[in-house]
Amino acid sequence: MGEQKYGVDPAVANQIASEVADIQKLGVQTAVVIGGGNIFRGVAASAKGMDRATADYMGMLATVINGLALQDAMEHLGVNTRVVTAIEMRAVAEPFIRRRAIRHLEKGRVVIFAAGTGNPYFTTDTAAALRAMEIKADVILKGTKVDGIYTADPMLHPEATRFDNISYIKVLEQGLRVMDATAISLCMDNKLPIIVFNLRTPGNMRRAIMGEPIGSLVTA
Fold this sequence. Notes:
By secondary structure, the chain is an alpha/beta fold. It folds into two domains: 1-137, Carbamate kinase (3-Layer(aba) Sandwich), CATH 3.40.1160.10; 138-220, Carbamate kinase (3-Layer(aba) Sandwich), CATH 3.40.1160.10. It is built from eight helices and ten strands. The chain has helices at residues 10-24, 42-47, 52-76, 98-106, 124-134, 168-173, 181-189, 204-209; strands at 31-33, 81-85, 94-95, 110-114, 140-144, 149-150, 162-163, 165-167, 194-198, 216-219. It has a four-stranded parallel β-sheet with strand order 1-4-2-3, sandwiched between helices. A four-stranded mixed β-sheet has the order 5-9-10-8. A two-stranded antiparallel ribbon has the order 6-7. Helix 1 crosses helix 3 and helix 5 runs parallel beside helix 7. It is globular.
């Protein structure tokens, strides 16, 4: 969304695409799980009286729009990309088939997972954790607007302090809303580390991949 109030900012899509392309050149197999809050937020619509399942399905469709926008930006950079959706819409994207997605990664393609898990009541955070388990990812990189996990929202509380390292259980106990509880629990059960970092800072994705200490690391 960038600085816009709604929709896709091509400059932001291009920036994210170039960051992913940069790590792809290192030979890193990369999959992206994309949200849809810049177009439609199911929880917000549900709070205003819309049926929650309907609102969530609409949110999933919004993630497909974002996935296609990111795919276009990446292919302009010469990166082979596949959009894979949890809800079938064969005219625009492939249906999610685990082995096929892994094969795309092995062939050096970036895979964009859209439409969440395909189920209402689950967030794209949970979709990220689930897909990461399915493709046997080494780490989840959670790109946000801030540079890590804080004791409180740093946008609202300037005195909030950042965690360099934190355990899954502390994230859950302290109710730190970096990812939802289902996603954190999935990662905890499967010992999958999470790096939370600022997606808006150029080069951060590469720094995380190269093992530089950026953002916050969530482990056991």
